[in-house]
Amino acid sequence: MSVAALYQPFEFKGLKLPNRVVMAPMTRSASPDGVPTDEVAAYYARRAAADVGLIISEGTGVARPASLNDPNIPRFHGEAELAGWKKVIDAVHAAGGLMAPQLWHVGAVRSRREDWAPAGPYDSPSGISSPGHRFGEPMSDVDVADAIAAFASAAASARRLGYDCVELHGAHGYLIDQFFWDGTNERDDLFGGPTIGQRANFAAEILKAVRAAVGPDYPVIIRLSQWKQQDFAARLAPTPADMEAWLQPLADAGADAFHCSQRRFWEPEFEGSDLNFAGWAKKLTGKPSITVGSVGLTGEFIAAYGGEASKPASLDRLIAMLERGDFDLVAVGRALLQDPLWSEKVRDGRTAELMDFERSAMATLY
Ligand SMILES: Cc1cc2nc3c(=O)[nH]c(=O)nc-3n(C[C@H](O)[C@H](O)[C@H](O)COP(=O)(O)O)c2cc1C
Question: How far apart are the CA of 265 and the centre of ligand 1, in A?
């Protein structure tokens, strides 16, 4: 099957992408003391030079004392940190690429390191890290307002440094998703309640603040998932009506595109339709959407953490869904982590040169 559909240009919110291939955000923990190094800049520039249409950075922390749970994950605030990020975007632009930082707050997902702790208590909507696990105090009104402002300020920095757009990490059981999920959000104020629409208020307020900070024309993407690292079977929206109640307020608040995280892109979201999450997000909101999850590989990414290797897999099903218009963009994680030339090889039909994904790639920054 021809891969031509992947290499058609796409424009949204004035951002002209040369093709549909997006590098998925992947934490690399290779930025000592939160400052991206020259090696980090070179790592992204290698992908930019090899026909990746849009790069989304690894998650990078907003200015709250415990927005990150590892000292080697890059921050997106502070003079040295932003100077590092400036080198990254300059290197990516010099290689002909486009890039967004993924703005991140880990919330209640605590550090696994015993020799290190963040500068303050972990933020969370209700002091709950997963259903039934209470570990601390809920965020106060002041904490919530400060977290919203931290996202807005990071987005303003992204624009100032020359990044082409920005992505908010609202997925995978981290802070924004902890507000979405009734398993971790027991608040009864503006930011909680029995409906997904109420629990979407935190994200909506962040989007409004980000929009005010970056202006009306700057593209803002939000990444979402039904699944959580705390519970792969969790579903914020069990029906299309719930999904609309979740996504429409985010679109109204300023989201220009939805990045819909699944572990396997081909899995249908609801019974009775073969549309996946990105397909439903686009259908319900009319906004562009990005799919992701095991594109071009046989195995999925959680198993990769356990050491599972993956082999190159056919793109036929993905291309058929893209050609049908289910979604607009396709994010690729491990295949691009393993091989900076993945997109170029796919474009040119060099399938014999596509690489297996090996866990060892996660320890390097090539
Ligand atoms: C090493 C690694 C780090 C990741 N870090 C992030 C992250 O910082 N933010 C995020 O939203 N997703 C993160 N993910 C998930 C990926 O963006 C992607 O959704 C997932 O790997 C599935 O895509 P794939 O099957 O093409 O690898 C990470 C995945 C991997 C393998």
Answer: 13
| pLDDT reported for residue 323 | 98
CA 251/CA 269 separation, integer angstroms: 20
Of 336, 314, 329, 335, nearest to 2 (Cα)?
314
Residue whose token pair is 């909101």: 285
Looking at 203-314, which runs of residues are DSSP E strands? 220-225, 257-261, 289-292
Active site includes 174? yes
Cα separation, 117 vs 113, in Å, equals 8
Kindly state if the Cβ of 229 falls inside 6 Å of ligand 1. Answer: no
- Residue 219 in contact with residue 257, Cβ under 8 Å? yes
CA distances from 295 to 170, 188, 292 (A): 21, 40, 7
pTM: 0.98
pLDDT in tens, 73-87: 999 999 999 999 999
Return d(Cα 84, Cα 106) in angstroms, integer: 21
Q: Work out the burial of residue 305: count CB atoms within 10 Å of its CB; fewer than 13 is exposed, 13-18 middle, 19 or more buried.
A: exposed
